[in-house]
Amino acid sequence: xxxxxxxxxxxxxxxxxxxxxxPASEAQKENAWLHNATASAVVRTAKDEQAxxxxxxxxxxxxxxxxxFVFDYGxxxxxxxxxxxxxxxxxxxxxxxxxxxxxQSKPDVWEVADAxxxxxxxxxxxxxxxxxxxxxxxxxxxxKKSKALREIIxxxxxxxxxxxxxxxxxxxxxxxxxxxxxxxxxxxIKNC
Length: 192
Known about the structure:
Elements: H1 2-15, H2 26-48, H3 53-73, H4 84-87, H5 90-104, H6 109-127, H7 129-162, H8 167-177, H9 180-191
């Protein structure tokens, strides 16, 4: 049992936070669709108004890059209006605001990880016996250490923002004292 818990823990830590991805909301899908339609309208307008070649190329590139968001998020159930007037309507601005709100309200990766540890603790309790108790204790300790590490990194980042003149010294000290493994873990946590 202990080996199973250890293997699962290593797998979760090795995969990092990038493996957790939440689906796009309908507002985000519609916004991505409208973004691409807006970028296409900018290209048409730049050509119609005989803008500079540079502006036409930049807007064409922006439209091409915008397609990636549509493919990434998926098509909305209902396609929003794509006329220039429809794109400039208040509804489009409202939709963009809703998409931003949806993006900001995604669950924190750490909250998801904590919930996963709680499920693991509950499952270990269900298994019962000495191994179940040991697994539950191990997972509870892992959860506490994870929280402590998050708080330390958050404090370090706050310090670096408040004391910009000390950032270089801060980095030099950490580079000298941290192992490559620790640096990798801290980098992964900062990116979550």
